[in-house]
Specification:
Blueprint: E1 22-25, E2 28-31, H1 56-69, H2 74-79, H3 83-97, H4 99-110, H5 118-134
């Protein structure tokens, strides 16, 4: 699993064109790389606009995917110090990993306790970064 990277605009374009698709997380635009799937030699283009409500636990699960899947890779941990990268990881998880997997991760991370050791610590790191970027969890 390689970490996502931020996109750049196409140099020399008459009208600056994003090199990659964009998504909006809390009204902040984030460019991301969609996963490439094998397909026909002349693929079609689908433009999709969808709003996916994500709560605090969903956002934590999205970041946890990257932390747990890379065993707390120091580069990814460092990325999470940047709000733009936190948003990018959320988009990458929702779009490229999938909402079904995000739901599984949510259930998994919600059930972690200190007895789970390092995975619990990764979840807590994800929770801290989500709180720093998006604010605290809202309780009813």
């Amino acid at each position: 699993m390689s970490a996502p990277t931020l996109a750049r605009t196409v140099p020399g374009a008459t009208n600056p064109t994003p090199a990659l698709p964009t998504a909006s997380v809390n009204d902040v635009v984030t460019r991301f790389t969609p996963s490439h799937r094998p397909g026909p030699a002349r693929p079609g283009l689908a433009t999709v606009s969808v709003s996916v409500p994500l709560d605090h636990a969903d956002l934590v699960a999205a970041l946890f995917y990257w932390l747990d899947g890379t065993d707390g890779d120091p580069d990814i941990v460092a990325d999470l110090d940047r709000a733009d990268m936190v948003r990018l990881y959320v988009v990458e998880t929702a779009v490229n990993v999938g909402l079904g997997r995000l739901e599984e991760l949510r259930a998994e991370t919600t059930g972690l306790t200190p007895a789970d050791g390092y995975r619990w610590e990764l979840r807590e790191l994800a929770r801290d970064r989500v709180t720093a970027v998006f604010g605290p969890a809202v309780t009813a």
